[in-house]
Amino acid sequence: MEISRHRRLITPLLFMGLALLCVVLAIADMLVGTTHLSLAEVWAALCGRPYDAHHATIVLYMRLPKVVVAILSGVALSASGLQMQTLFRNPLAGPYVLGINAGASLGVALFTLVTPLLALSASWLLTVGITGMAWLGSALILLLVMALSRRIRNINTILIIGMMLSSAISAVVGILQYMGTEESLKAFVVWTMGSVSTVTVDQLMVLLPVVVVGSLFAIVVIKPLNMLLLGEGYARSMGLNVTRSRRLIFLSTTLLAGGVTAFCGPIGFIGLAMPHLARITFRTADHRVLMPASMLWGALSMVVCTLACDVVARQGVMLPVNTITSLLGIPVIIYVVLRNSHRQ
Asked: What HEC string does the chain produce?
């Protein structure tokens, strides 16, 4: 009883502490860049009373969108990763386990290979094409997985099929890379490195509602996720429509992970590591706590990664965001694997 009361007290404090830290780091990220801006100048620009029009442009159209995209991508990937880990009852499942990442990569690979052949060299058309094809590839994989889930009752079979689809698509992407030109290959490789700074304000207006809708679906399935903790057989005995819940989870994951991948490229380890970090810090398996905690940890981690990239960029070295997310996520995964091995 005393332990339960202690946890009820500490949980709100953890949420407030993480949220405050995320806000502080987000503001710090808007201060960092090639152009030095003070806190007063950033605040004035955000309030609509900038000291300088050029500074307002930097804050409102470059740094603020980048921070918002980082937060949205962290929320989306962490929520989708938590759903996949619970659904498949696999601690190493991530947001891309269904093949969403592979589908998006195939779409981008097809576009970057065809673009030079059709002489489509306009940068805005290239950006729209990459985003659209990535989303189309993710959506096609979703439709295929949902069609298979109607016929297959065993969730582990769906997991294996998703892994095989990813391997097959990766082989096709490898062939396309081998056939592509030097410029198309460079465009594809840059996309695979991931970036939150290339998303424009107009694209953000599309990404934002996609993440909001996907997050709402993730909140709707919190109760089914709690029931699925003990397996689908138990969930069915409790009256859960497992097939319907699967579809909602798949749809949420595709909207969240597919949307982020389309605009930012494949960002690794955030969706895999942050749900575990939420479990470690909040010490619970209840998704009513884990879902918002994972989202908050995801947002915080992506802001940290973006800030780290910006700090390094001031030294004249540009790092892709995936390098930082890997350095941040891999220690968490190793810790989880070692802890689970000791329990066995």
From this structure: CHHHHHHHHHHHHHHHHHHHHHHHHHHHHHHCCCCCCCHHHHHHHHCCCCCCHHHHHHHHHHHHHHHHHHHHHHHHHHHHHHHHHHHHCCCCCCCCCCCHHHHHHHHHHHHHHHHHHCCCCCHHHHHHHHHHHHHHHHHHHHHHHHHHHHHCCCHHHHHHHHHHHHHHHHHHHHHHHHHCCHHHHHHHHHHHHCCCCCCCHHHHHHHHHHHHHHHHHHHHCHHHHHHHCCCHHHHHHCCCCHHHHHHHHHHHHHHHHHHHHHHHCCCCCHHHHHHHHHHHHHCCCCHHHHHHHHHHHHHHHHHHHHHHHHHHHCCCCCCCHHHHHHHHHHHHHHHHHHHHHHHC
